[in-house]
Amino acid sequence: MNNAFRSEPFNPHVHWHIFPRYKVAPELDGIVFEDVLFGNFYEDTLERLVSDETVEHIASKLTEYLASH
């Protein structure tokens, strides 16, 4: 993130884009996350909008998983 070093105080951070791929569609908060392109390159123009609550739920699941591995 080169922009983080353009002015002081510097503010570098890690920025991830996560593209999960699923052969079997998982369900979370009553939403089925089907990967219609499984086995092919992901399409970054596809969007799936979910509530802030679901985003927080996904983030907590990722945090939990990363902390345990």
Give an overview of the whole structure:
This protein is mainly α. It has one domain (14-68). The protein is built from one helix and two strands; from the N terminus they run ββα. The protein has one helix at 52-68; strands spanning 27-28, 31-32. Strands 1-2 form a two-stranded antiparallel ribbon. The chain is extended, with a radius of gyration of 16 Å.
Task: Quickly describe the structure.
This protein has one helix spanning 52-68, and strands at residues 27-28, 31-32. The chain is mainly alpha-helical and 69 residues long.
Proportion of residues in helical segments: 10-25%
- The whole-number mean of residue pLDDT values reads 89
Order of helices and strands: EEH
Structural class: mainly alpha
Q: Estimate the global geometry from the Cα principal axes.
A: extended
Compute the number of helices. Answer: 1
* Count of spatially separate domains: 1
Give Rg in angstroms.
16 Å
Give the tags.
mainly alpha, 69 residues
Describe how the helices and strands are arranged.
Elements: E1 27-28, E2 31-32, H1 52-68
Antiparallel strand pairs: 1-2
